[in-house]
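Budget justification aside, the reviewers requested a transparent look at the raw inputs and outputs of the sequence design task funded under Objective 1. We therefore reproduce one unedited record. The lines immediately below are the structure tokens for a 119-residue chain.
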């Protein structure tokens, strides 16, 4: 198979998938479509800001049950071990690793006041 044939088959498959999505959404009742849209919005928020943590209270607006949390890694200054390796290798190790160390944190986002903080 040449590249043109592969592209034509890929485009045909994409058209069928889009057609199937449009047809399936038309078959939904307005109530089902609203539920589907809410579920998509909730999944999007889960991917962006993480799951809701019902016990955490927002330090800014003092509300409980509106804070989403997720694990993140953040640069946190210069790593001593990496600096030592850079001196021993004449700076070559900096190309592969850099000097910054990464720190595991939890990022929180309040849906009520849109505040974002890390702890």
């Amino acid at each position: 198979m040449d590249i043109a044939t592969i592209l034509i088959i890929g485009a045909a498959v994409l058209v069928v998938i889009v057609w199937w999505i449009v047809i399936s959404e038309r078959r939904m009742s307005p109530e089902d479509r609203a539920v589907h849209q809410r579920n998509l919005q909730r999944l999007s928020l889960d991917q962006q800001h993480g799951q809701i943590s019902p016990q955490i209270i927002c330090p800014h607006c003092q509300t409980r049950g509106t804070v989403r949390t997720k694990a993140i890694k953040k640069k946190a200054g210069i790593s001593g071990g990496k600096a030592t390796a850079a001196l021993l290798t004449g700076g070559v190790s900096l190309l592969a690793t850099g000097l910054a160390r990464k720190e595991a944190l939890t990022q929180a986002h309040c849906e009520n006041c849109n505040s974002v903080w890390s702890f």
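The mean pLDDT is 82. Residues 50-119 form one domain. Computational costs for records of this kind are itemized in the attached budget.
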